TrEMBL record:
This is Transglycosylase SLT domain-containing protein. Pfam families: SLT_4 (PF19489). Residues 2-182 form the Transglycosylase SLT domain. It comes from Thioalbus denitrificans.
Amino acid sequence: MLVQALLLWSCSTTPPRNLNDSCAIFEEKGSWYRSAKASYERWGVPIDVQLAIIHQESRFVDDAKTPRGRLLWVIPWTRLSSAYGYAQATDGTWERYRRDTGNSGADRDDFDDVTDFIGWYGDLSHREAGIPKDDAYRQYLAYHEGQGGYLRGTWRDKAWLKRTARRVADRAGRYRQQLAGCEENLDSGGWLWPF
């Protein structure tokens, strides 16, 4: 029993201590930089945009889930959505990603897979809705509403969603500025990489 508990604990990933500093995130979680950089090189969605979306969706919690609904306002019921993991990707969208990329073993609680997913999704938003890959505001609107919803303008009457997308864009801008000061060191392997 103790061995099983230790194995489960060792597999779980804790969020970074400082969620507001991209350099601190990557200094603490070195393999995450390699994952985000690989996604950027494959799909063209900047690292700062990837991080800002993950921050908004899960605060870097690997097994984040949507809240449960309530039956008769008190009894915990089913979850409000199938969204799960770092990216809060729904079952259907995740399956489409797996099918489209051939990454059939991808997991929503694996940072490497999630950064690739966000890159893929941003590339899809670029191709289907014409959204620039570095436009965190519009990328997030399409991330939340889907490309079809974005094109139909389902976000236009959602003031809360536009405020959230603005926060994502602001955070991406801060992450981008921070990365400008440490990316050379990250690329050269200047820090010892944990995990």
